[in-house]
Design goal:
1 helix; about 110 residues; Jelly Rolls; about 5% helix; five-stranded mixed β-sheet; single chain; mainly beta; globular
């Protein structure tokens, strides 16, 4: 199935309201436009268990797939990620999660 688009908040001098968190989709995953400056915030709403977010690297080097970046988010923690180089992650950043307890937001500065 198609990945679920993740809307990104674009800041402005006058201020803007951030887009609402999106529940992680464990079946289809998510995709967001990536300029290389895209910022992804992941909140683990599970108070007891860590969960993993995966940033897909659609690359091959010398015919070998590059391993995706998998990061464990501790229980009740929030992590912010950025610096998704478009040459590595593409202009459409694909994100997978292992739980709907992970809540996602995107910022496009």
């Amino acid at each position: 199935m198609a990945r679920i688009p993740l809307a990104a908040t674009r800041p402005a001098r006058g201020g803007v309201t951030a887009v609402a968190e999106v529940d992680g989709n464990t079946v289809d995953g998510h995709v967001v436009t990536n300029t290389g400056r895209t910022v992804i915030t992941v909140r683990n709403a599970d108070a007891s268990n860590p969960h993993s977010v995966t940033f897909v690297l659609p690359q091959t080097i010398d015919g070998q797939a590059v391993a995706d970046r998998v990061v464990s988010i501790p229980a009740s923690a929030t992590r912010t990620f950025g610096g998704f180089v478009t040459e590595w992650y593409s202009q459409r950043l694909s994100i997978d999660v292992d739980s709907t307890q992970l809540k996602l937001q995107a910022l496009e500065p």
